[in-house]
Design a protein that fits this description.
By secondary structure, this protein is an alpha+beta fold. The protein has three domains: 90 residues, ATP-grasp fold, A domain (Dna Ligase, domain 1, 2-Layer Sandwich), CATH 3.30.1490; 125 residues, ATP-grasp fold, B domain (D-amino Acid Aminotransferase, Chain A, domain 1), CATH 3.30.470.20; 146 residues, Rossmann fold (3-Layer(aba) Sandwich), CATH 3.40.50. Strands 1, 9, 10, 11, 12, 13 and 14 form a seven-stranded antiparallel β-sheet that branches. A six-stranded mixed β-sheet has the order 15-17-16-18-19-20, with helices on both faces. A four-stranded antiparallel β-sheet has the order 2-8-3-5, covered by helices on one side. Helix 10 crosses helix 11. The longest helix is centred in the middle third of the chain and has 20 residues. The chain is elongated, with a radius of gyration of 26 Å. It starts with a strand and ends with a helix. The protein binds guanosine-5'-diphosphate and manganese (II) ion.
């Protein structure tokens, strides 16, 4: 789960990290004039809050001053104009895709005189199965680009979860900072580490971490991703979820205890169990197509869920054909088959559908599909079923 910059900064502030004062707005800016009395400036920084980076260099669909989603404003009476122009507008950045993202939250911060910009992040390195810190003097820009063009500029530090980190003189030299600043960076690092562990984060990215003109470090941007599997330990963090940032179909599935994941291809996959979902997607790719999604009905799928599942898959316009791959264990294939037939009738479902059953009552299930006279295709062999559904997606 991702959270917004202003939410991340509120959390980091509680851990004693240096962030600037700011005010956040959801959907309306009514209190802005009043709030500005308390915010020191000039300048003020008006920041669009969306779950995507590159806001500073992005552009608005409804252009108003040719600038991006992060704007430094020097005239107080302009702040609310700029904020209103951003609110409700669509911001396009290199991470949003061309369709952009609707801005319905704004953060206004006291400005900062930047001397230098650094990059700092804490994350999980999945290839090494270790926690990792990344630090670079090349900040404010895409770290992925730095990693390609100038990899030596990035320092990687591996750590275990409860270890004190001590940044050394070598790094001090590399970052070109003085001894006092190294101490400050050490303190920031260990506070970030504590925050990372306490909230079960999977990423904390500060880009940029800046040295201001007074020579002190300030966290100017903050991105936090939380580990979904640990969210049950943090009910107060679950509340930070911005539902407008989630895929509505994924939300609808979750409400019915199903897992739906939207992908980019053309074949809808309805399965039970995550392992079978992976195998189903692999075999579709092997036969040259890409899955449009997968919907995991779960181990205790019933007829109502199948109907709901069809509704969800059907509302994805990219789906050209569907593979239903069910392994009957606790659930009986004939029950799912009845659900499929009922759903197809009820929804007047027209897309080509290939069904594969294995396990409990698979023969009975197959009979239900074959006797339905709805043009449904039942194939027992996994590879043949995949081949067929790929073929049907291409006609
Ligand atoms: P991003 O583009 O989505 O990563 O948004 P950031 O919050 O990182 O802002 C982009 C850039 O705006 C930063 O790298 C800074 O150069 C600049 N910026 C952000 N806040 C301030 C500020 O308070 N003062 C100044 N002068 N520049 C800022
Ligand atoms: Mn940034």
């Amino acid at each position: 789960m991702n959270i917004h910059e202003y939410q991340a900064k509120e959390i980091l502030k509680k851990f004693g990290l240096p962030v600037l004062n700011g005010k956040s707005y959801v959907n309306n800016l009514d209190s802005i004039e009043n709030d500005l009395i308390d915010l020191k400036g000039p300048p003020w920084v008006v920041k669009s809050q969306i779950h995507a980076g590159g806001r500073g260099t992005g552009y608005f669909k409804n252009a108003f001053n040719g600038k991006g989603g992060v704007q430094v404003i020097f005239e107080k009476n302009q702040v609310s104009n700029i904020a209103s122009s951003m609110m409700g507008n669509v911001l396009v950045t290199k991470q949003t895709g061309e369709q952009g993202k609707l801005v319905n939250r704004i953060f206004i911060e006291e400005g900062c005189d930047i001397d230098r910009e650094f990059y700092f992040s804490l994350l999980v390195d999945r290839t090494k199965s270790q926690l990792m810190i990344m630090i670079s003097a090349a900040g404010g820009i895409d770290i992925e680009e730095v990693a390609i063009s100038d990899p030596k500029k990035i320092t990687y530090i591996y750590f275990t979860s409860n270890q004190d980190i001590k940044l050394d003189e070598k790094l001090q030299k590399k970052l070109n900072i003085n001894k006092r600043q190294l101490d400050e960076l050490n303190s920031i690092t260990n506070k970030l580490l504590l925050a990372f562990n306490s909230i079960d984060a999977s990423t904390i990215e500060i880009n940029p971490l800046v040295l201001n003109k007074q020579g002190n470090f300030v966290l100017l941007d903050a991105k936090i991703s939380l580990d979904d599997n640990a969210l049950f330990r943090h009910p107060e963090l679950v509340e930070l979820k911005d539902l407008t940032e989630e895929d509505p179909l994924e939300l609808q599935a979750a409400e019915h205890d199903m897992n739906y994941v939207k992908l980019q291809g053309s074949i809808g996959c309805m399965v039970n169990g995550a392992g079978l979902a992976m195998a189903t997607m692999d075999i579709i790719k092997q036969y040259g197509e890409e899955p449009a999604n997968f919907l995991d009905l779960g181990g205790t799928a019933n007829k109502d869920r199948v109907i709901m599942g069809f509704k969800i898959i059907q509302s994805d316009p990219n789906v050209k054909s569907i593979l239903i791959n069910i392994f009957g264990g606790i659930i009986h294939c004939d029950m799912i088959a009845n659900g499929i037939v009922e759903a197809v009738k009820e929804l007047n479902f027209k897309l080509p559908l290939v069904v594969r059953f294995q396990g409990t009552n698979s023969n009975e299930g197959r009979d239900v599909i074959n006797n339905s006279s709805l043009g449904l295709i039942s194939i027992d062999d996994f590879a043949d079923a995949a081949k067929k559904v790929v073929e049907l997606s291409q006609v």
